[in-house]
Design a protein that fits this description.
By secondary structure, the chain is an alpha/beta fold. The protein has 23 helices and 13 strands. The protein folds into 4 domains: 3-154, P-loop containing nucleotide triphosphate hydrolases (Rossmann fold, 3-Layer(aba) Sandwich); 160-229, no CATH class; 238-407, P-loop containing nucleotide triphosphate hydrolases (Rossmann fold); 411-527, Helicase, Ruva Protein, domain 3. The chain has a 7-stranded mixed β-sheet with strand order 7-9-10-11-8-12-13, with helices on both faces. Strands 3-2-4-5-1-6 form a 6-stranded mixed β-sheet, with helices on both faces. It is elongated and about 85 Å long.
């Protein structure tokens, strides 16, 4: 049995067979895995007894063909999709007709009318001449006037059981010694690395690993997955920090809250009655470690992390924005358990100066998924404008979609020292004693990114000066040359802090709410 036949879409194949048997005459299937789905359709149709279905295919390039690619167009190549549907209505052959890539034509009134006619007329035909039309496309949006006549299936990416079958096929190409040396844990790591890939992509990645290395290496498979995720330009694979949350300075409140939250996804937690965590909103001035927190959390939990760019989801095609979102969500869910960073989600659909119909539809898709998802995906949304999102789209960030809202403030002097300590510890060549107290005092108003830039700048200075150890003076000189962004954005930062009072949890123990004292007894410095 081949790889395609093994992967039946997490039960979707059974649903499809039930729809065909119950005479659902027009079915839409959304899948990027045309070859895989077509093989399953053929298996279903030919396996129905006592009268199996013939399988026919239509595309603009081939017209109508049988499963061997031989034309069956009755006297001419039918390239027009409406004419092909008319052919199905008129023929008397018991068959399943698979229409490839018909989605661009669904905006045409004639095709929609023909499909409605087909759905109606094929319902009443005798069993021996029954026909089913399957619309198979990588992305497909059903027009409103067809929704009552077309049943849509979204074919999921393969799950662990299906990828295990792919792995078993791939193992046949290993040497006997290598095959026998693979432990159960080794197999699980390969399967985990393959989550989010199609059957064909997983099979190709495993084959490449065997050809290059003579073994099945999860790291190489992950590299292939990173490239696949990056192709669309809408998502990015994030590298976790190996040290986990310890890699971050400051932000002790949120670190304490998140450290063990992965356990809440366990079966034990479900049996106890704990609610499955949904995710959090992070907001605050730019450069204060929102993305770094996600990478650190990925390292702490041992989960993969993916960043979704909401602005890049926008498409000029009808239904394109929603299709982009759904395709990316399918990849994320297949990678679960995982972290999903929706970075600056307000730029895409959270709010803005102009909210159009596309924004509304896309926001609806995200809201539905955030509320209804069952896959263990912990969502972290970031924004610099939560006050605006709450004003324009409060439903997007309500409880039930996110668990908490956290404000990431500019670090206080104590917080800056902690951040300097982290970055200085990563410097391979520096003096034994770097005075981070002095650096923290001199860097008032700095964000975490600006502190990191100061340390990196000092490394450049020391390297240029004979590759000597980095000193406190080197870093201090760079600090003095940086004008922090907070200087020009002081009014906006004050607004953010004031708005967060009573509306968001404070991520830092050493930075206090406006008008309060810091947790360590120090006054909050003037912003």
């Amino acid at each position: 049995m081949g790889v395609d036949e093994m992967a039946d879409g997490n039960g979707t194949a059974k649903t499809l067979e039930e729809l065909i048997r119950s005479k659902h005459t027009v079915i839409a299937i959304e899948s990027r895995e045309e070859r895989r789905v077509e093989k399953i359709i053929q298996r279903i149709g030919e396996g129905i007894t006592p009268e199996p279905y013939a399988i026919r295919y239509w595309s603009r390039t081939t017209g109508i063909t049988d499963s061997d690619g031989v034309a069956v167009d009755d006297g001419g190549l039918i390239r027009n999709s409406s004419d092909a549907v008319e052919h199905v209505i008129k023929t008397k052959e018991r068959a399943i007709y698979v229409f490839r890539d018909i989605h661009p034509d669904l905006s045409e009134a004639l095709l929609c009318r023909m499909l409605r006619d087909a759905a109606k007329s094929l319902k009443g035909v005798k069993r021996e001449v029954s026909r089913t039309i399957i619309l198979l496309s990588p992305y497909i949006t059903i027009p409103a006037d067809l929704e009552a006549d077309v049943h849509k299936l979204v074919w999921p990416l393969p799950n662990r059981d299906e990828l295990k079958a792919v792995l078993e096929v791939a193992k046949r190409n290993l040497s006997k010694d290598m095959r026998e040396a693979m432990t159960e844990d080794d197999c699980e790591h390969v399967i985990s690395a393959s989550l989010g890939l199609t059957v064909e992509e997983a099979s190709s990645a495993m084959a490449l690993s065997i050809i290059k290395l003579g073994k099945l290496d999860p790291k190489l498979i992950i590299q292939e997955k990173k490239q696949k995720i990056a192709k669309s330009g809408r998502m990015e694979w994030l590298e976790p920090f190996p040290d986990g949350l310890a890699a971050l300075g400051d932000l002790e409140n949120i670190k304490d809250d998140l450290k063990d939250k992965a356990e809440h996804f366990s079966q034990d937690a479900k049996e106890y009655g704990l609610a499955t965590p949904k995710g959090i909103i992070l907001w605050g001035p730019a450069g204060n470690g929102k993305t770094a927190l996600v990478k650190a959390l990925a390292g702490e939990w041992g989960w993969p992390a993916v960043r979704m760019n909401m602005a890049a989801q926008q498409s000029g095609l009808h239904g394109g924005t929603e299709q982009n979102l759904l395709a990316d969500i399918a990849i994320v869910e297949a990678c679960a358990p995982c972290l999903l960073l929706i970075d600056e989600f307000d730029e895409g659909i959270g709010g803005g100066d102009s909210i159009n119909e596309v924004d509304n539809r896309a926001a609806g898709e995200i809201q539905t998924w955030l509320s209804d998802r069952t896959a263990p995906v912990y969502v972290i949304g970031t924004t610099n404008n939560l006050d605006r999102v709450e004003r324009e789209r409060p439903q997007l960030v309500r409880k039930g979609r996110f668990d908490d809202k956290w404000y990431i403030p500019l670090p206080s002097e104590v917080g800056r020292k902690a951040i300097f300590d982290v970055h200085v510890a990563r410097v391979k060549c520096c003096e034994k004693k770097i005075d981070t107290d002095k650096l923290a005092l001199a860097s008032g108003g700095f964000s975490g990114v600006e502190i990191e830039a100061a340390v990196n700048g000092a490394k450049g200075t020391a390297y240029k000066d004979g590759k000597r150890p980095v000193s406190t003076a080197d870093i201090l000189a760079i600090v003095k040359g940086i004008i922090p962004t907070s200087k020009s954005a002081s009014d906006r930062i004050a607004e953010m802090e004031q708005w967060s009072k009573g509306k968001a949890r404070w991520a830092s123990k050493t930075a206090a709410l406006p008008g309060q004292k810091q947790a360590d007894g120090l006054d909050l410095e003037t912003r």
